Amino acid sequence: MKATNSIPVIHQQAGSVAGRKFRNLRISLTASCNYACTYCVPDGKRLLRSNEEISSQEIIRMIRLLKATAGITKVRLTGGEPLLSNKFDAVLAQVMTMGFGDVSFTTNGEYLLKKIDIIRASGIKRINVSLDTLVSERFRKIARSGNLENVLRGIERVLEAGISVKLNMVPMRGINDDEIISMLDFSLARNIELRYIELMQMGHLLNSPEFDQQFFGMDEILELISNHYSFSETRLNPDATACLFSIAGKGRFGIIANKSRPFCVNCNRLRLTSNGRLYGCLSNHKNHDLRPLLDLSDDEAKKDLRLVLSKAINDKKTPWFMGEKTVMKFIGG
Ligand code: SAM
CB 3.0–4.6 Å: which of 70, 81, 220, 303 could bond 15 by disulfide? Predict the structure, then answer.
């Protein structure tokens, strides 16, 4: 009689350590950006694309491999500025056919008008736009470039196309904290969810007094809002990174409180940079080069990728964001 193996084979998903899994993939299409926001890059230096940037076909293959091995369900294209990259159209179109439950991208909004046909045709349902101010001169001081009018017109066109928009605002003391309410009014009037992002100690802000001077945290944001609106906190799924609040009859807003209410223990994000490096944690500059996998067959590449993913999940630092020298636009915000 033939011996049978009665021990069940467990296909453990890579990228899962003690119940932790990667689910959410952020892909930086390029490190280059048309803006040079004060909190993102020092001295107004606009970062350029790296010579090592991988192609759109290579990105798409990496996404397929990551979907198969890590069990990714959510994808966000980011950068640098994703709309600046000539890979944007192809990668977005392909990602939309891959069966992910949720696809979005994050943009500074400058090129939304130019790209509206591509965006609409892709079938994407939602996007995030970073907007720190509604005052033109201030806008150019923070972004050190750009045109607020273009961004606002772009947002309107996206909404007209039936695509939902979330706005990301980084409130900074003495810079735009007086716009916390006007930004919320603007968003509620347009059925936009505003997310206040607490300033993060990244790149040049890591060891800089600027960080403490400018940090404007969740408690103060909520106190200001409570003078204008009554709101209640909404329960979210456990892996959510934002604290969400609803204002009855008007809408809701969120706070990504990296410092005040850290969410690292629940984080399931994985980041792929524009030069093919995989980062398991925003708080850890350790990364894994995926480019050698491109020379392998799918089966071999998946085998190697499972090993890489189990290392990357161990790169996650807890319990809170500890600061990192890497600039957000390299790693993909
Ligand atoms: N260019 C796109 C944009 O502007 O949305 C995508 C890349 S940008 C790096 C992504 C997000 O990172 C933006 O919402 C930006 O505000 C945020 N960001 C960058 N540096 C940050 C910091 N030090 N603290 C908090 N948020 C930061």
Answer: 70
Q: Domain 24-171+262-331 classified CATH 1.20.1070.10?
A: no
- Whether the pLDDT of residue 74 is over 70: the answer is yes
Q: Cβ contacts of residue 8 below 8 Å, gap of 6+?
A: none
Q: Is the CB of 33 under 6 A from ligand 1?
A: yes
Is the CB–ligand 1 distance for residue 199 below 6 Å? yes
- For 248, the token pair is 């009855």
**Model confidence band, residue 12 (pLDDT cutoffs 50, 70, 90):** very low
Q: Rounded CA gap, 16 and 173, in Å?
A: 39
Token couple for 254: 């969120």
Q: Cα(272)–Cα(82) distance, rounded to whole angstroms? A: 13
Burial 80-98 (b: 16+ CB within 10 A, else e): bbbbbbebbbbbbbbbbee
Nearest atom (ligand 1) to Cα of 39? 23
Is residue 243's pLDDT more than 80?
yes
How far away, in angstroms, is 332 Cα from ligand 1 center? 8
Q: Answer yes or no: is pLDDT of 164 > 70.
A: yes
pLDDT band at residue 327 using 50, 70 and 90 as cut-offs: low
Domain positions in the chain are 24-171+262-331
Mean pLDDT of 56-68: 97
